[in-house]
Amino acid sequence: MDNDSIDQIIDKQRGKPGSLIQVLMEIQDKNQWLPREALEKVSEKLEVPLSRVLRIATFYKTFKLIPEGRHKIHICTGTACHVRGAQRVLDTVQDLTGIKPGETDPDLKFSLETVNCLGCCTLGPVLEIDGKTFGKAAPAEIADELKKYE
Amino acid sequence: MSEIIIQIDGRDVAAREGMTILEAAQTAGITIPTLCHHEKLEPYGACRICTVEIENRGRTRLVAACLYPVEKDLVVRTRSEKVDRIRKVILELLLAHAPEATELQVLAKEYGADKDRFEKESSFCILCGLCVRYCAEVKKKHAVGFVDRGTGREISFIPEIASRECWNCKECFPLCPTEALQAAYVLTEALISSSPSFKLEAEE
User: Fold this and answer.
1) Model confidence over A59-93: pLDDT tens digits?
2) Among A120, B6, B51, B68, fewest CB within 10 Å belongs to which?
3) Closest partner residue to A49 among B142, B148, B149, by Cβ?
4) SS3 assignment for A53-75
């Protein structure tokens, strides 16, 4: 992300500590994640101590402090999916991608997250890749599907 | 300022309006144990070890003495059976995090807390926030802060600020009831000195 667009977002709220979360969300919206340099800049321009910026950024699950992969995998571990074998789905994806929930692989190909419900429990266990839903997920099918992504 | 008479452990104690129960007790020489309290800092109410039982208009409640303001006709009990039991459990929970902390061990002896009651989860930090608040409120440097949330919450020095400010200060070190703070500092220092983008003041 170029510095200009970060500056643009921050300049609108300059000197307003109360806008911290809004600014962080806007930056993340543009950039997918929050680089350290951006946080330092936010701290300076909004006149919020860096330790507070980091406290807020680490508190909310929304904020990503590491780069996002090109493809985002969301695996549902809610109650319905859990009893229908979400753990097996999660294990398969972890094995294939080599990353744990909350991580991104070094090639920036996949990011993995667990979520609590995707709203279609009858399809459990459910996972979502780049917003596309895969229901009644079987480990072998997931393996085939993941191979299609570059 | 108007004076309020409250009763602490059966003794009448005169207090000024706006004082907390803890302050009133201290002026009367009554000890209430504290862990997260510091006279230079705003009351925080994190450790709950100062929990006392109050009675007002016939009802009893449990409150944190370091936060609760004195009020007319307040009756305070600092050592009832209920209060002692609560303090014992709080200590046992804190000891699961920091079993070696001397301050906790002294209190544990007094309240009969068993340090092995809960499974050890040694984070060594009891999240009293003394270092974080001292750095923010007294030194106004914000070099150490809380990160993460819930069970993952911990203190962390911010390398960008710590590399400038901490070398000549370290005033937070003696405040820590455990030794987690010093450990966090040493860790940050090691990370800073091994990273080429940071330079310690002392090296310049």
Assistant:
1) 998 899 999 899 999 999 999 999 999 999 999 99
2) A120
3) B142
4) HHHHHHHCCCCCCCCCCCEEEEE
Q: What is the ipTM of this complex?
A: 0.81
Q: Which residues of A touch B161 (CB under 8 A)?
A: 49-51
Q: Measuring CA to CA, how many Å separate A65 from each of A31, A68, A80, B128, B173?
A: 11, 9, 30, 26, 29
Domain ranges of chain B: 3-79, 130-203
CATH 2.60.40, domain B130-203, yes or no = no
- For B155-190, how does the pLDDT look when each residue is reduced to its tens digit (9 = 90+)? 999 988 988 888 888 899 999 998 888 888 888 888
Please indicate if any CB of chain A lies within 8 Å of the CB of B145: yes
Domains of chain A: 3-59 (no CATH), 71-147 (3.40.30.10)
Spatial neighbors of B112 by CB under 8 A, at least 6 apart, are: B88
Nearest residue on chain A to B152, alpha-carbon basis: A59
What are A125's two structure tokens? 């266990």
Does the domain made of B3-79 have the CATH classification 3.10.20.740? yes
- CB–CB contact B143 A52 (8 Å): no
What pLDDT does B204 receive? 38
